[in-house]
Amino acid sequence: MQISWQVFIMLHALFSALQALQFRAIARDKKLRRAGLAINAIAFSTLYVCGLIILPLIGGVSFSNFTAIWPLFLASSALFVFALYLMYKAFTHLESATATVLGTSSALFTIIIAGVFYDERLSTTQVLGIAIVLPCIWYVLLLAKRSHKLIDFKDHNWLHGFWFMIASSLCLAFAHVIEKDILSQVEVGTYIAFGWLLQVGFAWLFYFVFGRHAKKIFAKQKTVRSAMQLGAVRAATGFFFILALDISNNVSLVTVIANFRIVIVAILAGVLLGERRFYYKKIAASAISVIGLSIIFWN
Is 122 left (phi over 0), alpha (psi -120 to 50) or beta? Predict the structure, then answer.
């Protein structure tokens, strides 16, 4: 029996939430603020090792299929690596709640780009479900803020984080749209074998060219271990997203549903980090979000 794409995208949302928490745990260390490229290189290396482990279970690797569209592989790999570096920079400036809600802009960018290049359209029912989910997500993140203002352009630290996150979301949107094009032409195994390998290559290339000033972190076992944990979670996040995208063949819908991770972040922050301020209001918003998700899934 084939597992539905809805199951895979919800698993993606769960691991994406864990990735956000791990991202913030590393990025808030002031000593590591300028070590994003080194952290990225370690994380992507771990991601590829995880990919090699699961590859025998997937199979279907074709070098000829890869060479036929290698420019698409190069573009998506570079965009993913750069996007996650920008995301790291955003988390050094912003609280996890604020950074995550700004990250929802990737869904909007993806819908616009997919509509322009692939003529993807959401149904009326799906739009209704999204209209229910997104305000709930914003409400949960607004509750998570300590101040009354979610957006503050007078705060220069916040402003730097804002632009880093918006740029990251735009890169992710282009990467996901290209990824959909790739998966329509090659097997999932081929994408993981060569796409993830190129991501490792770009991560280390960016480090050697721009990030060698942070080489001291490789001697810190705790930091390396945290980066490897981030890579392992990222592997699960990417793998489940790829499966959901491959089965559904709708990058707009998959990307929008993936934003349910924000509600999961709010819940896990209360359970794992003790952030229980407005906790029951967050749970109520989560319940309404589930209704919106159910409407989308019903289509």
Answer: beta
Please count the other Cβ atoms lying within 10 Å of the Cβ belonging to residue 210. 12
Token duo for residue 114: 């997919």
Token couple for 271: 């359970």
Q: How many residues make up the chain in this entry?
A: 299
pTM comes to 0.82
Query: pLDDT (tens digit, 9 = 90+) per residue, 236-258?
Result: 999 998 988 888 877 777 877 77
pLDDT tens sequence across 67-116: 999 999 999 999 999 999 999 998 888 777 667 777 777 777 887 787 77
Are the beta carbons of 192 and 55 closer than 8 angstroms? yes
Mean pLDDT in residue range 21-29: 84
| Residue 73 · residue 66 · CB < 8 Å | yes
Rounded CA separation 242/189 (Å): 10
Ranges of beta strands (E only) in the chain are none
Write the CA distances from 207 to 81, 195, 257, integer angstroms: 11, 19, 32
DSSP code per residue over 223-262: HHHHHHHHHHHHHHHHHHHHHHHHHH--HHHHHHHHTTHH
Token duo for residue 61 = 């690797």
DSSP 121: -
Tokens of 250: 């709708």
- Can you say how many angstroms the Cα of residue 87 is from the centroid of all Cα atoms in its chain? 9
Tell me how far CA of residue 259 lies from CA of 10, 50, 102, in angstroms. Answer: 10, 24, 11
Average pLDDT over residues 227-241: 93
pLDDT of residue 132: 77
